[in-house]
Specification:
With 364 residues, the protein is of the alpha/beta class. It has a domain at 2-170 and 201-227 and 265-315: 3-Layer(aba) Sandwich (Rossmann fold). It contains 14 helices and 16 strands. The model has no long low-confidence stretch (mean pLDDT 90). The structure holds NADP nicotinamide-adenine-dinucleotide phosphate (NAP). NADP nicotinamide-adenine-dinucleotide phosphate binds next to helix 2, strand 2, helix 6, strand 5 and strand 7.
Length: 364
């Protein structure tokens, strides 16, 4: 694993996002020669620079994936590209379909063109369950994005293009867990779109680890599908109320947002015919088009048994398992500790509160 990234120049489009920062963190352990973080907004780059201030081999470039000329020059000496930059909020994409097409489709074609022109070794793309039998513009753009990436292998002599497909990653920008926690803390209320709605979920660290391992094993044009458990939106709300709220916490059903599906699919019915079980973490979907490559290694593996994988027909997480999953992430523990501290403070007198703060190193 380490050798795959050692001394390499790695380019991460969308490197300041949730996946990008975790990916950077994990890649640093493999001693790359340089990591280039590419994104549009300076404040996110400034925050990331502060967080990774010890790592002088990270370079930050402000620009847009829609601009091919700039990408062409920046990726000149790059060995590996992780393409993460996306407009990913379903309702935002529904209301701005043209912007979604420009970033998610044109941006991806630009990445492909510059990777081919600069003989990049590998391009790894992160896709989503929303690309399977897509219902919204984000999913539709991601489905085209996957097709562009797979077909790029046919134009390529040396560059490998692959996709990794995953469901919802807990705690990423805009995800439901931080939203519910904030709603409970601020208003003692959670707004539920549809209690029976189901979603595949995974922790960020695990998702990025799987992304890295798939990128190491990739050949040509595979879509690696992360196996994930699923959960209902109601169970997410109940679990978080149990931890952060009380019996007085209110729940309000607000209805699905534009473009939202009730259940997501990881593998569609038609894809299942080309979908093999790689190991306990991954399915692999082989390309439909003839890339001229040998996939015997994969075709020897068993095919998946179900005709499709939907977020209400595989492995469901219980409320307790969900809370245990969340507890593994620092931000959850931090919030929980803060809540416990507040509850303790409420029991104390004024003098005791002063003593309490003096006892804490940070208050001295
Ligand atoms: N989070 C999930 O649950 C999940 C699940 C499956 C797949 N994915 C996929 O994983 C990837 C990363 O997701 P994430 O959760 O890390 O998203 P995120 O936190 O919103 O990060 C998106 C990144 O893309 C950059 N970006 C957006 N538009 C850009 C443009 N036109 N040019 C250059 N950079 C641009 C953003 O920075 P600026 O805004 O500063 O440009 C940011 O760095 C996406 O492709 C997403 O579709 C995410």
């Amino acid at each position: 694993m380490e050798q795959s990234f050692k001394n390499k120049v790695i380019f991460i489009s969308g490197g300041t996002g949730s996946w990008g920062q975790e990916l950077t963190q994990q890649l640093l352990a493999s001693s790359p020669s340089k990591i280039i973080i590419y994104s549009r907004w300076e404040h996110k780059q400034v925050d990331m620079k502060r967080k990774f201030h010890e790592h002088k081999n990270i370079h930050y470039v402000i620009w847009d994936v829609r601009d091919k000329e700039r990408l062409l020059s920046i990726t000149k000496w790059v060995d590996i590209i992780f393409h993460l930059a996306a407009l990913k909020h379903v309702p935002v994409c529904e209301e701005n379909p043209n912007e979604s097409v420009l970033t998610n489709i044109l941006g991806t074609q630009n990445i492909i063109d510059v990777a081919l022109a600069n003989n990049v070794e590998r391009v790894i793309d992160v896709s989503t369950d929303k690309a399977v039998d897509p219902f919204n513009i984000y999913g539709t753009c991601k489905a085209v994005w996957e097709k562009l990436i797979i077909a790029a292998n046919m134009q390529s002599k040396s560059t490998t293009f692959v996709c990794i497909r995953g469901g919802n990653v807990l705690g990423t920008n805009g995800s439901v867990v931080p939203l519910f926690i904030e709603q409970i803390k601020k208003a003692d209320l959670v707004t539920i779109t549809d209690p029976d709605m189901t979603r595949y979920i995974m922790r960020l660290a695990e998702a990025v680890w799987l992304l890295i391992t798939a990128s190491v094993h990739a050949k040509w044009g595979e879509v690696f599908v992360m196996k994930m458990p699923w959960i209902t939106v109601q169970t997410i709300a109940d679990s978080l109320i149990q931890v952060f709220g009380s019996e007085n916490t209110k729940q309000k059903i607000v209805g699905s947002r534009p473009g939202e599906k009730k259940h997501e699919l990881l593998v569609s019915q038609y894809e299942s015919e080309r979908c093999h079980i790689l190991n306990e973490s991954y399915f692999v979907i082989l390309p439909m088009i003839d890339t001229g490559k040998d996939y015997t290694e994969y075709t020897k593996l068993p095919k998946i048994e179900q005709s499709f994988f939907a977020s209400n027909n595989t492995n469901m997480l219980s409320a307790q398992e969900f809370v245990e999953t969340l507890r593994k992430d620092w931000w959850f523990n931090h919030i929980e500790q803060t809540k416990t501290a507040i509850q303790e403070l409420e029991q104390l007198s004024k003098d005791e509160i002063i003593k309490y703060f003096l006892h804490q190193q940070w208050a001295k």
